[in-house]
Design goal:
The complex is a heterodimer of chains A (443) and B (244). With 443 residues, chain A is α/β, with parallel strands linked by helices. Chain A has 16 helices and 15 strands. Chain A is globular. The relative contact order of chain A is 0.10. The chains are: A alpha/beta (443), B alpha/beta (244).
Chain lengths: 443, 244
Amino acid sequence: MKKRCSPLSVAAGKGVQGACRLFKRGHSLPGMVVEKIDKGFLASALSQLPLGTMIVCGTNGKTTTARLIAQALRELELRAVTNNSGANFTRGIISSLLPLMTPSGKLPCDIGIFELDEAWAPVFCRQFPPSYALILNCSRDQLDRYGERDSVESMLAQVASCATKGLILNGGDERVKAFSSLAKGAKVSFYDFDPAISPLFPRDEDLICMKQGSYVKAPDGEASVILKRAFGDTALFEVGGEEFSLKMGVEGSFNFLNAAAAMAAILCIAKCCPQIGEKGRFEYVDMSARSVAQAVSKVKPAFGRGEEFHIGGCEVKMVLVKNPVGFSSALRALPLQDKDVMVALNDESADGRDVSWIYDVDYSNLSKIKAVTGERAFDMALCLEYNGKEVRRADLDIAKSLSGFLEGQKDKIIFSSYTSMLSLRKILLEMDKSKGGDLYAAD
Amino acid sequence: MRRIDVLSLYTNDMSFYGDMGNVLVVSKRLAFYGFEPVVHFYNPGDVFPEHVDMVFGGGGQDSGQKNIFEDLQKRSEKLRELASQGVPMLMICGMYQLFGKYFLTNSGKKIPGICVFDLYTEATSDRLIGNLVEESSQFGRLVGYENHSGQTYFSSPLRPLGKVISGEGNNLKDGVDGAVVNNAIGTYLHGPVLSKNPKLADFLIQKAQLNRYGEELLPPAAPILRRIDELAGKANEAASRRPR
């Protein structure tokens, strides 16, 4: 089964990667080159992973959750490899494997944790059926790309049906929960949240109902991991019947639920891999509920997803928001009192060209907004004003807005769409001396 | 305070593309003009409100259209009656289609509409997606976003809402978007359309006022409306310059 990759392809890929780094160019170019000259490369590379691969998919939380799983596995002394966020599909994954490969074509890793977007995931999974699939949620996002949420749902269903060993599902999202019937021999496990905290996890339907004055409660689930409570930076989890109260490295209840997903995913791996705990390479790996929960709790946020910068004595937090559920959850979960708030909205194709969705966000936790920026700043400001929220300044120019916004001594929080986040982050990194200007510092 | 009753049709199923924002915009503007907006959310099986001054409907997924079309048939007579009385209506995308005669699905099935507009829609395999800019003699430049696989054709000569400047609108042939019959307006513009096109919002409010209180001119507005309309103008300008 285990096949080494051709040393020639590895050398070519590493060469292109070196050149790309030198010229600060594209992440997936090396993967593209390798794919061209060696079609079997990825299959040989993935076949070397003794614990297999896991695909992380869903509308919100892919990057953070994939990171939570991979970092926690490393904490548990497994060698986990991941793809960079946004470096999707085969070429992105090849590019992320290349730096770890030995010149002889060996991949000295135990498991691959790959996040894939909803469109690429089914294509990838048909070509390389993953050992595990973790599906986080299904809500409306980038309808200009996907047309309807129903088509996203069927893409996720295909991913669920491809998993060979384990399928991990969000029991609190009824569309995702229903995928359990699609498992073909894979063990199914769920994670969930306690119904008492369901207002922290609104779904599309809840946002629409809430605006009409009613609210649909989340259903119960039979789950291996349950997020029971969230207080500030501490979360209470029930993991395999035991309760753990943990101070979390990531912030916000939506990320605590991602942590529950990560714990369930790792426990599922433990259940499906008889090698773990047996004599040999995995003899001393401890995947008990306690050590898994603790390992996940220590992980810090991924870049742009609650990442913090320190500028002029203030803390500046960057939160990526790209759809009604994600934005509403962030506003419900993060402390906003005594903070200056900025919202940045771009409409590049990576953000979604259609910005109509901002009208379905629940803004009730916001009060004043100090600055609004991005290509669709005026749309955003107008929407906030119609929602009764005062906007002090709206400006299309991101750099100019940011410099005005950073004045003053209050801590700051920025909610931003994807491409505006990249622009803002670049400036913030230059200003934050502690990060040393490395664009991928938090990755 | 003078009350205006606003009906939001099938919000659970037919507000998947932000069109509930139209109800927000119009109720806020009503309040700025000194009216008391009362919004009735109507979903399948609900009691139909006794008095209705304005009616709104939005876009949904195909599955959403399937969920509501039977109930819509039960309300078709009432809604046609309101339309013929000149009640202002704004129907976007999926509800615009169902306010026509029928929607012909890919499998050849005809989903009946309620015939407020003399037009029909055919499902196609190419989805028309992108920014949509059009010129209306009555409302000026209208901007928004279209996202539909059905293409709509007039059965008899109707007045379109606007002439398409960029994007597609009703279909790939006619170069127009939407339809206006009496005070009922149908369009493919999401956005939500009223946010960046306040003249259209005020037209609907004006007609509602005229019908209920017999007055033509809108009362003076709260000062905040000037600021909002200035933002709307800038948003319209910025959006109309964005790529498809």
